């Protein structure tokens, strides 16, 4: 039987990748540190509140004016700064929680406190992303919002 080094390497990578992803604390670490939305504002998106990042991606189809483009760009920048900072805090708190479990000593009051802090930070990240959708909507004309929704695959019901 002839061995194929490329195929062997591919199988190895496919087997090891899920294991590496499981080691990330928290599992959404990369998205948090990069300030990504990760679907946190999808309810806004599906209900006619466009996301500034996607507005910029669709700038040509939406025929954004220079002012609209600048408003979307500023929102993306603002969200990135805030979401990355909050994401870093979440990761630090999740790592601390993990360290408590690794140490074998997890006082219940510390567990509750750490979980409350993580929950608050996660809510803050979601708020940052949802606020960007709220602030983006009035920048666009109704026909742009309708086109945006179609281009993104959403049907807006009034």
Short structural description:
With 158 residues, this protein is an all-alpha fold.
Main sheet properties = none
Calculate the mean pLDDT score and round it: 89
Helix content: over 70%
Rg result: 21 Å
- The overall strand count is 0
Q: How much strand content do the residues show? A: under 5%
Structural class estimated from helices and strands: mainly alpha
Form type: elongated
Total of domains: 1
For the terminal residues, how far apart are their CA atoms? 64 Å
Task: Describe the protein's architecture and organization.
The protein has one domain (28-152). The protein has 158 residues and is mainly alpha-helical. It is elongated. Helix 6 packs antiparallel against helix 7 (108-136). The protein has eight helices and no strands. The longest helix is centred in the middle third of the chain and has 38 residues, at 66-103.
Secondary structure layout:
Elements: H1 5-23, H2 29-33, H3 42-45, H4 52-57, H5 59-62, H6 66-103, H7 108-136, H8 142-152
Spell out the key features of this protein.
158 residues; mainly alpha; 8 helices
């Amino acid at each position: 039987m002839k061995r194929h080094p490329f195929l062997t390497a591919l199988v190895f990578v496919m087997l090891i990748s899920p294991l590496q992803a499981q080691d990330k604390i928290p599992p959404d670490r990369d998205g948090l540190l990069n300030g990504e939305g990760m679907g946190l504002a999808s309810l806004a998106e599906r209900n006619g509140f466009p996301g500034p990042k996607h507005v910029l991606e669709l700038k040509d189809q939406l025929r954004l004016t220079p002012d609209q483009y600048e408003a979307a760009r500023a929102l993306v920048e603002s969200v990135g700064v805030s979401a990355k900072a909050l994401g870093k805090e979440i990761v630090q708190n999740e790592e601390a929680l993990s360290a408590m479990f690794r140490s074998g000593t997890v006082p219940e009051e510390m567990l509750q406190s750490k979980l409350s802090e993580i929950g608050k930070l996660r809510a803050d990240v979601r708020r940052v992303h949802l606020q960007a959708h709220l602030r983006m909507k009035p920048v666009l004309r109704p026909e742009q919002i309708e086109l945006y929704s179609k281009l993104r695959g959403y049907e807006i019901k009034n």
